[in-house]
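Example record

The entry below shows one chain as it appears in the dataset: sequence first, then structure tokens.
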Amino acid sequence: MELLCLCSSPNIRGVSCGLAQYLYDRMKAVSQSAALYHTHGLHLSPCKACMRCKNTGICVLDDDLRLILNQFAKADTVILAAPVYAADINVDMKVFLERSHSLIPPNMGPFPSPGNKLEKNLILVLSQGSPPEYHEEIPEKYKQYFRALGVMNQQTVRACNVPSNSDFSPNNYLEEIGVCDRLISVMSQGGREIQ
């Protein structure tokens, strides 16, 4: 398994990053290769909508995200972790998603790019200060887009009612850790789970 983990929170000791790190540490043991990135401190340029990637097959912007996009294309399993700000994922994760458009060939619609591994597994880790009934649409909102990137199995871990700027402590998130442990088991058996 090729594993990629991308954490977009500016608080690298925060809850979304902590849950992603928990997943990553346990899944990398069974991975052929594994990479973890924190967007905080990286140079990330937003998509310029130049569409040159549709001719070149890669994003032409030369920044830290280029390597991450290349690894995303090769990955079997991806962990994306983001805090929820203003009713959506934070801006660094949005920049990654907008730039990942470069991996979708022109006129491909909902089908994955030939350069992307098919049947990707994705675990989306979200943390939010609000209760669980808020923002529950976010994972579903991105599902079709992830499918165009080769994601055929999307799972979500949500931590709700998270105090602002709090650091991750596994003892405070036992329910979410339980979800992570179940997903680790599912992913180690091929990634499919009856929903």
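Notes for this example: Residues 174-188 form the longest helix (15 residues). The helical segments are 15-27, 53-56, 65-74, 91-99, 138-148, 174-188.
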